What we know:
This protein is α/β, with parallel strands linked by helices and 432 residues long. The protein has three domains: 168 residues, 3-Layer(bba) Sandwich (FAD/NAD(P)-binding domain), CATH 3.50.50.60; 85 residues, Guanine Nucleotide Dissociation Inhibitor, domain 1; 104 residues, Polyamine Oxidase, Chain A, domain 2, CATH 3.90.660. Helix content is 34%, strand content 25%. A seven-stranded mixed β-sheet has the order 7-6-15-16-17-14-18, with helices on both faces. A five-stranded parallel β-sheet has the order 9-2-1-13-19.
Amino acid sequence: MTNPGSPHVAVIGGGICGLAAAHRLAHRGTRVTLLESSDQLGGLGTFFAHGDRWLERFYHCIMPSDASLLALLGELGLRDAVQWRETTMGMVVDGRHHPFNSPLDLLRFSPLRLHDRVRFGVVSLLLRRLGQGRDLDTLRTEDWLRGLYGDVVWERLFAPMFGSKFGPSFGDVPALYLWQRLGRERNVATRGYPDGGYKTIIDALRTSIERAGGVVRTSTPVARLSSTGDRSVLTLAGGEVIDADHVVSTVPLPLLRSIADDALADRLPRVELPYQGVVTGVFFLRQPVTEHYWTPVLHSGTEFDGVVAMSALAGGRDLVYVMHYTDRDSPLYRDDDTAIAARWTAQLRGLYPELGADGIEEVRVFKAPFVEPVYPLGYLAARPPVTVDGTGLLLATTAHVYPDVTSWNSSVGLANEVVSLLADQPAVTPAR
């Protein structure tokens, strides 16, 4: 339980990183208050009701290599609730569907010429080894992959895939990002999904925090933050003021900068990462359309860039997600949800004619403005520290997880790191 004499830590943001940090702090006896601006916890793991189920607004899965997340689930008694499935990958190119898992699939992959298919297979087998000992942080992804795979593979496959994820600067993303991702994923992979959905994890974390004496508040945006070496003051949107010894901010740096007072803003990291947002369509189908969990869609006239069939993991109803990563100021992001749903419905039917006129039962569209940081070359050296000098503020954002892939697992690992730093800092009596 919370020790009344312990430091008071305010956590800004109720996504997985904030929840994990508050959970860990509360169970160390620290007084902790978590503040979430929206009416739901979970960040990108927020959910919506559909019939008697709760479903994620944005698709998620757990990988067997997600050690930090799986350890947290063990603490919550949820590790055995993860249902594991073998999943596969497909590929849609020029409107044609291809399995993309085995050597035989690759040999039959007609969008590439035979010698490009062979080169693709050999390089892919060696790619992790080819990256060892290289300074991939300062090497452009395009330069690395174009040099290894050749111009055709880059332009036909990788350029549209990276472009859909990172926008116009996709070729400049450090090759280290891809190399790290290869350590977490593969085309044919075991993936997990918690029984009852990600809401069960979010609910369990809130219960754990509150039972340990922590406070969790939703619909509580922070309007202003000031933080010096001996005092942090959070002014809420309604005018309430909260004093804290330390603050852990998990919100993206652009949002943090917008609420920081002038003195604190001057101390925040100068790194300004651009972020890709995402527009996601959730389709409830009356029949399955693909056996593959993940299917990139390339050169096929769709606004969305991929299809994720969650029914392969979650079971139950046939459910697919389609998505397009985009800047939050783009015309697509600002477009009306109903208009997006209508266009994407027609495009999904174009890819899967077997859906027919009545194969889609319902469509929901969701958007998130800060999803994927677009890291510049040499970001390891430019990556901001977790602590902000001269303040009681610690940062735990997606700007800090690099070179790990942005995921629930990397966010939990970052939360663990920040809490370990706080454990060594003494309580400070706020000025009166």
